[in-house]
């Protein structure tokens, strides 16, 4: 009796250990992993039927490991300490971050790297700007900065946190400018625009159509991680209502929130995408980094119908996709988006070029480089510093394809030329945010275009980018 009871106890203990460790060891939650049938990977996500409590317990147990692994990757690649220029600030006063932040390997210098061919950099494994994976690439989904979560706790996920330090992000909340009412300056009056204050702030400034559009932009609708089903990553009732467009495009700009692009499979080939600013969408002709949708209306409609659910209509239906009515809702939201202006650039003239009477010598030299030797202007054309085209920068010339951080480092194809007006207010840079500062952007293009710029020329180019 005694012996068999002891055996029973031992068996229970062994079983319990196996269960717990399998929960702890399983590297990623399966909730949003594409399901595979045999060897053939599926384009579809699994329709998760696991109980919420089970998923949450597993995700929470895994979280520290997930965060630590990603932090190691970031620290291998970047110097993340706070370095800012207090003399150059975003509209509401946040100082801009200064780089370059990328760490160079094997003691090589930027000058030496600049003289190497793409093949040499590739063979020696020296390229400092590989694609940036999502915090938990196999799982993905929307992740919001910690500064924002302090104000809007409903945006907290229980399975992962935001990864980059606050000094590399746009100011929160950003200022908002309207093309129609430039005379008013910052119409947000320093406030975070939400469903609770939009009416008081904008009644009398917008027409009723735009006002209704703005209401929809600050209203929560269900999304992949924030919804009312058991397959969600929020434990708060107010998080279960969904997210608002302006949770990411805060005050019509961006707060640096990111997710994964919906239109690629398999999962490891998807890109991390950093929220783009909606400032100046009116002058743009392509929307989305690669989808190249042709109107703001299309993007507005499909952001919610498709991107919110990783481009998977099966999941969207399950989680309660909100279908916007094209004639009144999509149209009204777009009308409002179309009047979001770039921030003022007091040193630019009506051609979008430097007013030389106001420019410093360094800024002027930077402009000459931008339109001359560095040839940035062949893609970033004045006055808004975009050609409204897509370009394949062929970054894969510089590295060997491989998996890193759960993401396939490989060719990424053509991406739209983002406008550079107001660029100092929207770090980090590129579609995935892999360039943490403007100095990194200049180093990146110096290598990409094989410009072999001197240190002084790089400083001048940055000086010019800061006044755009
Ligand atoms: C993760 C937070 C997030 C939320 C919420 C969000 N967006 Fe976006 N938005 C993005 C990202 C990231 C991109 C860039 C997409 C890409 O690179 O393909 C984007 C791109 C856009 C663009 C195209 C901008 C350009 O320059 O190409 C528009 C327009 C837009 N969003 C509108 C909306 C609207 C309308 C909503 C609400 C229905 C919304 N967004 C909700 C993150 C978000
Ligand atoms: C061949 C076209 C081309 C040239 C030349 C070019 N760019 Fe770009 N630029 C792009 C494209 C395309 C992107 C978006 C790439 C991405 O997101 O992966 C971009 C993105 C950027 C960004 C980040 C924008 C953002 O919102 O994140 C900066 C900054 C930038 N370029 C600066 C420069 C500078 C400075 C030069 C010259 C030294 C330059 N570019 C030359 C096409 C070009």
Order of helices and strands: HEEHEEHHHHHHEEHHHHEEEEHH
**Average predicted confidence as pLDDT:** 93
Class computed from helices, strands and strand pairing = mainly alpha
- How many helices? The count is 14
Query: Helix content range of the residues, please?
Result: 25-40%
- Which band does the percent of strand residues land in? 5-15%
What is the domain tally?
1
Which small-molecule ligands are present, each listed once?
A: heme C
Tell the overall outline.
globular
Plain-language structure description:
There is one protein chain. Helix content is 32%, strand content 7%. By secondary structure, the chain is mainly alpha-helical. It has one domain. Strands 1-2 form a two-stranded antiparallel sheet. A two-stranded antiparallel ribbon has the order 3-4. The chain has a two-stranded antiparallel sheet with strand order 5-6. Helix 9 crosses helix 11 (326-337) and helix 12 (361-371) crosses helix 14. The termini are far apart. Mean pLDDT is 93; it is low at 9-32. Bound molecules: heme C (HEC) (2 copies). Residues 289, 374-376, 378-380, 391, 393, 415, 417-418, 420, 423, 426, 429-431, 441-442, 445, 449, 461 line the site of one heme C. Residues 142, 243, 245, 247-249, 257, 259, 261, 273-276, 278, 281, 284, 287-291, 296, 299-300, 303-304, 333, 337, 431 line the site of one heme C.
List keywords for this structure.
32% helix, mainly alpha, two-stranded antiparallel ribbon, 468 residues, 10 strands, 14 helices, binds heme C
């Amino acid at each position: 009796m005694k012996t068999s009871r002891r055996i029973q106890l031992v068996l229970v203990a062994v079983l319990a250990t196996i269960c717990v460790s399998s929960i702890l060891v399983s590297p990623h939650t399966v909730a949003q992993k594409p399901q595979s049938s045999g060897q053939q990977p599926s384009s579809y996500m699994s329709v998760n039927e696991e109980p919420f409590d089970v998923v949450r317990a597993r995700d929470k147990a895994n979280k520290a490991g997930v965060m630590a692994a990603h932090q190691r990757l970031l620290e291998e690649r970047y110097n993340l300490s706070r370095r800012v220029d207090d003399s150059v600030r975003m509209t509401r006063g946040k100082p801009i971050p200064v780089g370059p932040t990328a760490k160079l390997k094997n003691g090589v210098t930027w000058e030496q790297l600049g003289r190497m061919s793409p093949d040499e950099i590739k063979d020696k494994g020296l390229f400092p700007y590989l694609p940036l994976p999502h915090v938990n690439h196999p799982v993905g989904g929307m992740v919001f900065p910690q500064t924002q979560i302090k104000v809007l706790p409903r945006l907290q996920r229980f399975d992962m946190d935001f990864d980059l330090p606050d000094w590399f992000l746009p100011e929160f909340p950003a200022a908002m400018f309207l093309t129609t009412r430039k005379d008013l300056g910052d119409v947000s009056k320093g406030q975070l625009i939400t469903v609770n204050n939009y009416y008081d702030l904008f009644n009398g400034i917008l027409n009723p159509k735009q006002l209704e559009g703005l209401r929809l932009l600050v209203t929560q609708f269900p999304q992949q991680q924030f919804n009312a089903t058991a397959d969600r990553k929020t434990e708060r009732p107010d998080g279960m209502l969904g997210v608002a467009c302006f949770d990411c495009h805060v005050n019509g700009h961006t707060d640096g929130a990111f997710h994964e692009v919906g239109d690629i499979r398999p999962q490891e080939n998807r890109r991390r995408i950093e929220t783009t600013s909606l400032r100046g969408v009116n002058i743009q002709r392509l929307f989305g980094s690669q989808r190249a949708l042709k109107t703001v209306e299309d993007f507005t409609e499909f952001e919610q119908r498709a991107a919110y659910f990783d481009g998977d209509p099966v999941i969207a239906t399950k989680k309660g996709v909100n279908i916007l009515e094209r004639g009144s809702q999509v149209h009204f939201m777009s009308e409002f988006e179309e009047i979001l202006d770039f921030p003022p650039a007091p040193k630019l003239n009506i051609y979008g070029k430097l007013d030389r009477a106001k420019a410093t010598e360094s800024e002027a030299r930077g402009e000459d480089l931008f339109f001359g030797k560095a040839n940035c202007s062949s893609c970033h054309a004045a006055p808004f510093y975009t050609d409204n085209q897509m370009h394949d920068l062929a970054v894969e010339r510089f590295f060997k394809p491989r998996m890193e951080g759960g993401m396939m480092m490989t060719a990424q194809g053509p991406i739209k030329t983002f406008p550079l007006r107001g660029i100092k207010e929207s770090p980090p840079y590129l579609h995935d945010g892999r360039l943490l500062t403007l100095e990194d952007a200049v180093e990146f293009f110096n290598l990409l275009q094989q410009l072999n710029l001197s240190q002084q020329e790089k400083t001048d180019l940055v000086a010019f980018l800061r006044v755009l």
